[in-house]
Design a protein that fits this description.
- β6, α5 and β7 form a beta-alpha-beta unit.
- With 355 residues, this protein is α/β, with parallel strands linked by helices.
- The longest helix is centred in the C-terminal third of the chain and has 22 residues.
- It has two domains: 199 residues, 3-Layer(aba) Sandwich (D-Maltodextrin-Binding Protein, domain 2), CATH 3.40.190; 90 residues, D-Maltodextrin-Binding Protein, domain 2 (3-Layer(aba) Sandwich), CATH 3.40.190.10.
- It is built from 13 helices and eleven strands.
- α7 crosses α11 and α9 packs parallel to α13.
């Protein structure tokens, strides 16, 4: 599962810096890892999670044992409130999809992307109820689409509309969090639901939903486990995003460095231990075991470098939101990227995970 969502919409009054390129992230000024083991033991890292995404990965890999600091978990329904909390210092770090940092950047939030992941895009989907007359992307005109505002699912809607030569004004967007959207979908109060896993799998299995189009760009849905390609409508990116206040604190910084490395190892571990991850996911969230397993088999994230391709893709999506008048002004995505942990994450990704 990839976790995919973001932050409340920026107001038109925001004064943002215009941007015409995809600059390399500015060199970070890392806070030295100077805290002692005794001081690190006093640190409580506040982690924002969605539907057990991070926690279940780490638990399955046995990487929550013998932590040199404490973790305090908070659960969020989607990325927007998570990043709002990170900007305010209520959480230190959390995982979100490709669009959340874009909206956070547009709102000039006090956050920074500190690591990146990539995975399956077939679970990012526009779903329709069983028996829906909608068969093509052009059929979306005039229809009501349920979506979490500012989420990766919101980004998918924008991309789908562009592919169909439709504008945002050609449809009605009903901004709903996943639980509310699921109820609206099953009651047929919305025509289409743009969503991500595990909700995609849950709707397909329990509500007999059908895929209109998914992140692969395939009508009716592409092959599970497909990563983004030239014709894809979704990037498959997700990110760990930290609050800038936390990054500036020596104790928190030390804990954050350790956490992002553990998460990279946990992702690698899950690649060859999918059933363990699915079991941990179901136990942690109350998901039905068969749904957790199916969503896990659909495809798991892998750690990747925050390189120029990632930055360029994110900038392109940010500019598309501006062009669609969803965001007010262009800004540099790279200004919200911090690569201080890049070498550590790369080493962990290359070495794999050991339980």
């Amino acid at each position: 599962m990839r976790l995919r969502n973001l932050i409340p919409l920026a107001t038109a009054a925001l004064a943002l810096t215009a941007c015409g390129g995809t600059d390399t992230p500015a060199a970070s000024a890392p806070v030295p890892d100077t805290v002692s083991a005794a001081d690190l033991a006093k640190v409580t890292l506040k982690v924002g999670d969605q539907k057990g995404g991070q926690k279940s990965y780490l638990e399955a890999a046995g990487l929550l044992k013998d932590l040199p600091y404490k973790i305090e978990w908070s659960t969020f329904s989607s990325g927007p409130p998570l990043l709002e909390a990170a900007s305010a210092g209520a959480v230190d770090i959390g995982a979100v999809g490709n669009t959340p940092p874009i909206f956070a950047g547009a709102a000039n939030a006090k956050i920074a992307v500190v690591s990146a992941q990539k995975g399956d895009v077939s679970s990012d989907a526009l779903l329709v109820p069983d028996g829906s007359p909608l068969k093509s992307l052009e059929d979306l005109r005039g229809k009501t689409i349920g979506v979490a505002k500012g989420s990766s699912a919101h980004g998918l809607v924008l991309t789908v509309l562009a592919k169909a030569n439709l504008k945002v004004d050609d449809v009605k967007l009903s901004f709903l969090q996943p639980s509310d959207a699921y109820a609206a979908f099953t009651q047929k109060n919305i025509d289409v639901w743009s969503i991500w896993d595990p909700y995609t799998t849950q709707a397909l299995r329990e509500a007999k939903a059908k895929v209109l189009v998914d992140g692969t760009g395939t009508l009716g849905g592409g092959a599970p486990g497909t990563e983004a390609g030239p014709d894809s409508l979704a990037s498959g990116y997700s990110f760990l995003v930290a609050g800038k206040g936390s990054l500036a604190d020596p104790g928190k910084n030390t804990a954050l460095r350790d956490y992002v490395v553990r998460y990279a190892k946990a992702l690698n571990y899950a690649k060859t231990h999918g059933e363990e991850r699915a079991a941990a996911w179901a136990k942690d969230t109350g998901l039905k075991p068969e749904i957790a397993l199916e969503a896990t088999k659909r495809g798991l994230d892998r750690p990747i470098e925050i390189d120029q391709t990632v930055i360029a893709d994110e900038q392109k999506l940010a500019d598309a939101f501006v062009e669609a008048k969803v965001l007010p002004t262009k800004f540099k995505f790279t200004d919200f990227v911090d690569t201080r942990y890049a070498a550590d994450v790369k080493a962990a990704a290359e070495s794999g995970a050991q339980k």
